[in-house]
Amino acid sequence: MTFSDFHDRFFPSTNPEASDEVTIWSVTRSMAKREFGLNYLIRFNGGPGCSSLSGFLNENGPFQWQPGTFRPVENPYTWVNLTNMLWVEQPVGVGYTQGVPNITEEIELSQEFAGFYKQFATTFGLENRKVYLTGESYAGYYVPYIADEFIKQEDDVYFNLAGIAINDPILGDSTLAQQVTVVPYLDYWANVFSPNASFTAAIHERADQCNYTSYYNTYLSFPPPPAPFPVLPDPFASDSEYPTCDLFDAVYTAAQA
């Protein structure tokens, strides 16, 4: 993986206390030639396949260009106010990246990114920095896998990982994250959703039939059993118009009624 395969941008912070910090995303390479501090943060969007330009232009970049507007406006809440920011579009095939996509899973992704990052740090003289990783959504996979790869490198010159943070992350498959937990969620917030008695009884019966209730009580309680968690069947594997074990959409539809 070559440095030119990825697309990157850097924005230095205006905060004098951020002189020892930096974060990764996307801006002109000429700006990246400015002197960095001792630390920086790498920011990822999710997807998988979500362009980092989404975060840059609509979330925490120095300006925002919202849908339906004619020009960008300064973002008073940009993270650049607090620290130096660098965003990177990845993996190859996303956004303005170059090259041919050739990975199929997150371990390969982390190795690809580590190869890019070492070349990036060498190009702009960013050796011996502490690095922080953060992201959202599918970055719940990106950040831990890339962090693990950084640690495996055992090289503080290039991969001195100082910390990670993920917000609104995807941490498991959607069946576990949505289908298994939606009925307990509905029960907890019953005063908000106000489901009627017949729907509540029916959705609990379906949760029992789909093995979601026993799975929740066994594997999503503390402490969990030591054995690996079993993988639940795909609730959308049915050929019927409305799969029996798709409880999430059933609750979602009922909540909108």
Overview of this structure, please?
With about 260 residues, this protein is of the alpha/beta class. The chain has nine helices and eight strands. The longest helix has 18 residues, at about 105-125. The strands form two sheets. Strands 1, 2, 3, 6, 7 and 8 form a six-stranded mixed β-sheet that branches. A two-stranded antiparallel ribbon has the order 4-5. Strand 7, helix 4 (about 140-155) and strand 8 form a beta-alpha-beta unit. Helix 7 packs antiparallel against helix 9.
List the helices and strands and how they pair.
Layout: E1 7-11, E2 23-24, H1 29-32, E3 39-44, H2 52-58, E4 63-64, E5 73-74, E6 85-89, H3 106-123, E7 130-137, H4 139-153, E8 160-169, H5 174-188, H6 190-193, H7 197-209, H8 212-219, H9 247-256
Parallel strand pairs: 2-3, 3-6, 3-7, 7-8
Antiparallel strand pairs: 1-6, 4-5
Helix pairs in contact: 3-4, 7-9
